[in-house]
Please model this.
Amino acid sequence: MKLFESDVSANGIKLHIYRTNTGKPPLVFAHGMSDNGLCFWPFAEQLAGDYEIILYDSRNHGRSDAATDMTLIDRAHDLAGLVEALELQKPGLVGHSLGAVTVALFAGLYPDVPGCIVLEDPPPFQELAAPDAQAKVGRAMWRASAAENRQKSVEELVEMNREECPTWPEAERIPWAQSKQQFNLNAFDEERIDAETGDQIVSQITCPALIITADLDMHSIFPPQAADELAARLPNFTHVNIPGAGHNIRREQPRAYLTAVREFLSTCTANQ
Model:
């Protein structure tokens, strides 16, 4: 299926988008840190028969604007501006990692806008607060690695990904590699959010929400127990745990992930 590209103005910046333009119910995808919008296409294409797929490059990623002096909350407002610019009515939204946090904050700050949301292994809000010394070291190492990856060829990055993530579907590798060349290191400098503020915003979510977790031993980052507690506290939340996967759940257990998302979206559609 063909994707159409364009730029939209949202929250004062340019965001690059890809969409199928089918006129079906809209489904927006928000990628994780250092990925880009097309990184979601190998998965999202499987849903294109039922939904209009909309992918976007977030600020400092892909072909969207670079930005400084930004905050994590700005990302939520970017997404709100995108939905408004495209005149989407009650869109579904799927986010991974940083994109999942963006979607959650957007849904809490604009509770009447989304139809439903899917959150794939978001980082807990306490990890988004001002980092401690150990976290600062880890982040500095990640930044250095990202800077090195920007200098590698797509072919080198694909081979690196094949060695590090041998179980990923082959279709995932080139978009992942291209995104690493496009990634702007400004993203590491954005202002974080404290756990209390994040939890307060998330508590305002009123649309149906699915949080998908995986195995902490395989480097997923949202504890399944915390997801159960979130679902117990917020009545519109549902939690699905997919074993045998780490942080990139859709890439490591694609069949189980697709089943969970399809079932959730079909339930949301039936109840609208």
User: Anything to note?
Assistant: The first strand starts at residue 4 and ends at 10. The mean pLDDT is 94.
